Amino acid sequence: MDVLEELMKKRKWIKCCLRANVAQPEDVKVYGTIKVAKIYSNVLNVREKEPELYDAIQAVAPEWWGDDTQCTLNKDLVCKRHRDHANKEHSWILWLGDFTGGALHFDDGSKIEGKGVWHKINGHIHHWNDPHEGSKYSIVLYRGTRKPKSNKLVAAKQAKRERLHLNSNLSNLLDDRPTTANI
Fold this sequence. Notes:
Layout: H1 2-10, E1 28-31, E2 34-37, E3 40-43, H2 51-60, E4 69-75, E5 87-101, E6 104-106, E7 111-112, E8 119-121, E9 127-129, E10 132-144, H3 150-175
Antiparallel strand pairs: 1-2, 3-4, 4-10, 5-8, 5-10, 6-7, 6-9
């Protein structure tokens, strides 16, 4: 677990994802039709992205479903009440880091906490977690009923770049038009 915790600390965290369902309202920004959450919550479903971290997670995972395995990595996430309706069956969660607090509560009255231990959870029950102090990392393993939304975010960013490029080209074309001053 120590190696895994060090890898989680060292990884490059991106504060941008499509998990608006877990983010606090003040952390959600809307760009056109896309809600972007300004939280550290990233998907790691392809080994090629971060092979060392991927292998370290797989080595300690209580269950692995081959290509069906989905993995969400979080840093300092305080999630609002939500449910994981796109997950099949149960999920597993592991907390790492130097933190206090942050217990995970469920509508059925159950509560889990404890770092360095995998917890089997039913994400179909509404759940949320308490605030915490310190650095808290979580790894969530599950089988999903759909592909991750990260591809939508990449597509939206690409479309925005293309629009900006088109607008820039159009502006350049307009600037290059002959005017009466230079005829």
